Amino acid sequence: MLLRRVARAAAAVPMAGRAAAVSTRSSSRIHGFHKLSHEDRVAAVQAKSGISDTQAKELISMDGIGFDLANRLVENVVTTISIPVGVATNVIVDGVERLVPMATEESSVVAAVCNSALQCRGTGGFFCSTTGPNMIAQVQLVAVDDPANARLKILERRDEIAELCDATDPILTGLGGGFRDLEVRVIDTEGGPMVITHLIIDTRDAMGANAVNSMAESLAPLIASWTGGKTYLRILSNLADRRVVRARAEWSCEAIGGESVRDGIIAAYQFADADPYRATTHNKGIMNGISAVVLATGNDTRAIEAGAHAYASLTGRYRSLTRYEKTSQGNLAGSIELPLAVGIVGGATKAHPTAKTCLDIMQCTDADTLQRVIAATGLAQNFGALKALATVGIQKGHMSLHAGNIAMAAGAVGEEIDKVAREMVSRGVVRQDVALEILTKLRS
Length: 444
Fold this sequence. Notes:
The protein has helices at residues 2-12, 15-19, 38-49, 53-61, 67-73, 109-119, 147-155, 158-168, 170-174, 209-227, 253-256, 259-274, 276-296, 301-311, 348-351, 353-362, 367-390, 394-409, 415-427, 432-443, and strands spanning 85-93, 96-103, 127-130, 134-142, 178-189, 192-202, 230-236, 244-251, 322-326, 332-339. It is α+β, with helices and mostly antiparallel strands.
């Protein structure tokens, strides 16, 4: 039955969509995807991405993970909580079609990415670049009378430090990763000067926390002996500014509704970049997209969010993570730049079956590609939010999609949910008291 659904889903893809496929991948356009049944959605995703029958059946079952795996991931397990995983369509990243799984409980987030990606397909989609998979481990040194001198003593040991770091994780070194550079800073604190050593480590396809933490802990006693000081913290930094990804896209005025829409989006960005109150909400919207993909792939959402918000403050004030401007052709150019320390090996990424399937749906075989897809998703989400804000307002689209949730909260079940939601949307008022009123009349 599943294989027949896959064949039917593949046949349903228009020939024009197939012809538009880049390289050997089929198009990420799936017409009417949101109207398909659950089983047919999974079949369409399987036809596009090539996930196995076993993986497809797991998606359909929605069983989640059992107690044994959950109990190995965290402590004191009593149950699990399910988060919906939607698939964003229409996405092209660096010329490659991608279906993008997104784990989120918030209405309109997945739809916004689909629509934003669709509107820039005509200009090639999203184009990305990265700085490489380098993470920072910090070693804190205190109680030194000559911090400047201590700094130089540590720097003189660079070759010895490199050898120690690589010996700490020979598997990583064998994969082409390992020590890359050494930095030592003297910082002023309430407790006096501290000497902070940064180990710059290439962690390849891993997020790298365990590797860099082990290296920092191995090095700390040597730093203390070389300088006569005392070491305390030995841990990675989640401000991964050596692991930055950039994404850009262009939207033509014809695709987005005209010059006034373009100019409104630019003005909305300028507001966010100048005002931290607006920038906080602006960047939260970006993270709606980014965190959804991070969570779907079993990566650390808290680390990504902390790093992104810190990066937004590096100039001394909190600013927008995205930028919008008008091109010489009159198009809208959008871009995003932020640190994204994600991996495809280790931790929940490999242990959680749904996370593994989500990576397969995206056809991400390395961390660099995953970074690019996540950044493109964040830019798409931000464009969608700004376009709504600059035109009809955020509530119209968001609350239309959220109306079903409000209906369920009021007690609607089955077919009642859509009936109550449609009535609220037609009235232009989406509230629980209104939903309850409509539901009461419906049942009377």
